[in-house]
Amino acid sequence: MSRAARPRIAFANDLGACTRRVAAAGPGCSATTRWRVRRARRRGSTGRTDSGARTASRTVRRLRSAPAEELRGAPRTRPAVATPVRVVGSAGVLLPAPVLRRRAGWAGWAGCQNAAMENQRPSAAPPPGPRAAPPPGRPGDPAEEVLDVVDAEDRVVGSAPRGEVYARGLRHRCVFVLVRDGQDRIFVHRRTASKLVFPSRYDMFVGGVVGTGEGYDEAALREAEEELGVSGLPRPRPLTRFLFTGGEGAGEWWSAVYEVRCTLPVRPQAEEVAWHAFLTEEELAARLETWPWVPDGLDAYRRVRALPEV
């Protein structure tokens, strides 16, 4: 018998034994196993010695001695590796799968993966990198923003972080800016669910708290540009100022109300605005009794509507 004929004869014997096992298993043999046998027969019957024929030989040898569970389609389990195979190369770098399989075989392949993953996993948490600095004068966490605390006459009596101001109900300052577009429509938006006060409520004003040492006029322009996502707005025009009380347990605050005309395309802050639209006075009036509005904004809007010059 020639040396070249031996692999073909061995393959034929293995394939015959495999076919008999599949036939004996009958309906208990999975469709996947039958397909593997048919594919091995097609690849091996050509007498080639390429990778396809070698794969067919490995398939039939494995199926010839495979347990009955594998013939029924149960997942094939690979033997456990007591000692992981050392991964050759730089620590933390997974070598290509074919390279590891050739070096370690199927039994050591799982060990190679485990060893590589252990090299990739750091032994200790890396030191935190530098955090991006927030804009000048504005902390990254809104609760850490320092506000002026004022008395009933709007005189500064101290300062505290915003989170403490809200928690203790300290009196502070806020600005409200009524924004109109070129068609005299009013900018209306819904606050995001992450807001510290009145989350997910509707508001017909943009604005916010006045920072420590900041004036009402400066805060109104800053808040309007930030919340609308524009720059170059004209200075907002002051309308009225009042002390708002009854903020659903949030305390009370001095509220300065402004108005500004915005003809620029707006790009509201995603962290501030969940939805927005420009509504006419009639459209807004029709929604005052049905939409959940922020109470201070609703109070400010009614005061603005009551002004003789508006």
How do the helices and strands line up, and which of them pair or pack?
Blueprint: H1 5-25, H2 31-44, H3 51-65, H4 68-71, H5 97-120, E1 146-150, E2 156-161, H6 162-168, E3 172-180, E4 186-191, E5 202-203, E6 206-209, H7 216-228, E7 237-244, E8 253-261, E9 273-279, H8 281-287, H9 295-306
Parallel strand pairs: 3-8
Antiparallel strand pairs: 1-2, 3-6, 4-5, 4-9, 7-8
Helix pairs in contact: 1-2, 1-3, 2-3
What does this structure look like?
This protein has 310 residues and is an alpha+beta fold. It has three domains: 1-76; 78-120, no CATH class; 143-306, Alpha-Beta Complex (Nucleoside Triphosphate Pyrophosphohydrolase), CATH 3.90.79.10. 38% of the residues lie in helices and 18% in strands. It is built from nine helices and nine strands. Helix 1 runs antiparallel to helix 2, helix 1 packs across helix 3 (51-65) and helix 2 packs across helix 3 (51-65). It is rod-shaped.
Proportion of helical residues = 25-40%
Distance between the termini: 109 Å
The side-by-side strand order for the widest beta sheet comes to 6-3-8-7
Which regions contain 5 or more consecutive residues with pLDDT less than 50? 79-95, 106-137
Tally the helices: 9
CATH superfamily of the largest domain: Nucleoside Triphosphate Pyrophosphohydrolase
> Whole-number average pLDDT?
77
Order of helices and strands: HHHHHEEHEEEEHEEEHH
Strand residues, percent: 15-25%
Tell me the number of structural domains. Answer: 3
Summary tags:
310 residues, alpha+beta, Nucleoside Triphosphate Pyrophosphohydrolase, 3 domains, four-stranded mixed beta sheet, three-stranded antiparallel beta sheet, 9 strands
